Amino acid sequence: MPKTLPVVTSNVTTRQKSGIGSALGQVRQLSFWAENAAPIGLIALVIVFGILSPVFLTLGNIQSMLIAASILVILSVAQSFVITTGGIDLSISATMTLGAVGFGLAYQANINFWLSVIIGLASACLVGLVNGVLIAKGKVTDFIVTLGTLSAATGLALILTTGKPIVVSSPELLILTTGTIGFIGYPVIIAAAVGAIAAFVMFRTRFGLHVQAVGGSEEASVANGVRAGRVRIAVYLICAFLAGVGAILLVARIGAAEPAINTGYLLNSIAAVVLGGVSLTGGRGKIFGPILGALLLTALANGLTLMSVSPFYQPLAVGFVVVLAALLTRFRKK
Amino acid sequence: MAEPLIRLQQVTKSFGPVDVLKGVDFEAYAGKVTALVGDNGAGKSTLIKGLSGVQPYDGGVVSFEGREVHLTNPRQASSLGIEVVYQDLALCENLDIVQNMFLGREELKQGTLDEAAMEFSAIKALQSLSVRTVKSVRQKVSSLSGGQRQTVAIGRTVLRNAKLVILDEPTAALGVAQTEQVLNLVRRLADNGLGVIIISHNLADVFQVCDYISVLYLGNMVARLETVKTTRDEVVAYITGTKVLEGVNE
Ligand SMILES: Nc1ncnc2c1ncn2[C@@H]1O[C@H](COP(=O)(O)OP(=O)(O)O)[C@@H](O)[C@H]1O
Ligand SMILES: [Mg+2]
Question: What's the pLDDT at A27?
């Protein structure tokens, strides 16, 4: 069809690149690093840890790394939708906690496993709905709203459980933690499916385009008939729903629904998105990048552990990597 | 003379005690470019906002293609075939040309974006305007010059099957070469049979592309001139109020 038309194909980026003088070579170099921070960082880590630790690249360790990464991958994809609209969800880990508690309480009350899962997802979605409505309709700053729901959801989880973990031992969860296809665990397959569906939604559907459009310019989007309010509510709902999916995986892994704060997941989800090349000001929709970012952060933690570095150093290392990535984003192409 | 594409008769608009449009008559024709000129505060933007449905008139009669219409919101004006290109152009810089041209009106195939069809239509729309300055329709708008952005915004009106295109100061921010491009584009729109209304402060532009010149002065339409039968001095005189048409009420 359109292939024969003359205007289509000339590749502008390459043209511009070849036109830039050698004096700007340095910056071009930096922009290359900035664009590909996550894959380059991941490869570098794999090489370094692969040399330093004989265990790092064994099949067993790769398997456990992937399983360890699955929750963070899901949360990063979730956060990526919100951040693409120019928003942020600080309540993401608290939402996951509430989802876990909702699931745990339902299962404890002898409700059927799948119904309990739905209750867990619904409790998470409730937080997303509150976030979305307050931000889109109430016009309250995303930062403040999700900081508020972070606290509220954490408190609610503590109240509902009286601060004690709910032990959940179900055959279904056992299958979820131990089951594999080939050598790939179920949590990894779920995370990969979430990533694939998210990429499809972001890049192939009208909704995904509108997510990017609202992040680029809400004013222009609205002027062209995009319902920006609905898009904003939807991204916070998606984010919360995926936090709920993460909650089930978390309960499966720990064997209990804990009213813990899980701040690490919050910070790492934002870090992974930044590493993945998504601009915090919105408009740059990315799914694969944040997934690589999540893998990078997990590999970092795993490698440091294998090398018997005290876990106290892990947040320091993560912070260093993220600040470096944030610095690099300054050199990203517009 | 042919029937006007759009005709305003005695339209009025007030903001509280301030009468901004005091019974304005105005018309524009298919295939012609009509300039709307006037000093700051004359009421040009208010007149246009009434046509686009953003800010409906208080009174008067509006006829489009010979039929009386009530322009009450932008969607409805757009469905009639009235499209406005505002000064800020309403483009998303992070999206490419095709995405911008179809934003809010995407074409779908089995629920997913029909990229091939949209790209094809976008190229066709730009070709109908003889656009040669755009290298690839998959370029991000952030990489485009001011003139190219104007081109995308105008191309979008063509895609939407506009019958009347209204441009608010389309060349205000452009250099000489790009102004020339955009004026050619405006002319091409009219040559394709669309009605075009262009607000401009630049009389050189106006005399270059417009067939008619309507002059607003403090909420009154003081002159409707044929470009070939008037002079720059005469237009300036109407704009500044030193010359007033007989029979125009104060
Ligand atoms: N929303 C509004 N409320 C009050 N006054 C307005 C409003 N919009 C325009 N006006 C007034 O109407 C007059 C005409 O404005 P405008 O149509 O913007 O003129 P122009 O575009 O010709 O410069 C000005 O005096 C302006 O102050
Ligand atoms: Mg104005």
Answer: 52
Name every residue whose Cβ is closer than 8 Å to that of residue B123 and which is 6 or more positions away in sequence: A2, A5, A7, A8, B137
Handedness of CA B177, B179, B182, B187 (dihedral sign): negative
Q: What is the mean pLDDT of residues B146-156?
A: 91
Q: Does residue A281 sit at the B interface (CB-CB below 8 Å)?
A: no
Q: Give the closest-approach CA distance of B135 to chain A in angstroms.
A: 6
pTM: 0.86
Q: Helix A142-161 crosses helix A113-136 at what angle (to 10 degrees)?
A: 150
The answer to whether A282 and A216 are in contact (CB under 8 A) is yes
Determine which residue's CA is closest to atom 26 belonging to ligand 1. B41
Q: Which stretches in chain A have pLDDT values below 70?
A: 1-28, 333-334
pLDDT digits 0-9 by tens, B13-33: 999 999 999 999 999 999 999
DSSP A177-200: HH-EETTEEHHHHHHHHHHHHHHH
ipTM computed for the complex: 0.85
Facing residue for B92 by CB, picked from A206, A217, A334 = A217
Please name the residue of chain A whose CA is at the shortest distance from the CA of residue B109. A205
pLDDT tens-place string over residues B165-219:
999 988 888 888 889 988 999 999 999 999 999 999 899 999 999 999 999 999 9
Q: Which ligand has the shortest distance to the CA of B44?
A: 1
Q: Touching check for A217 and chain B: CB below 8 Å?
A: yes
Binary contact (B92, A220; C-beta < 8 A): yes
The upper half-sphere exposure of residue A84, i.e. CA atoms within 13 Å in the direction of its Cβ, equals: 33
- Which tens digit of pLDDT belongs to each residue from A79-99? 999 999 999 999 999 999 999
CB-nearest to B92 from A11, A15, A216 is A216
Ligand 1, atom nearest to B44 Cα:
22
Domains of chain A: 57-275+283-328 (1.10.3470)
In CATH terms, the fold of domain B6-89+163-240 is Rossmann fold (3.40.50)
- What residue has token string 């002059």? B215
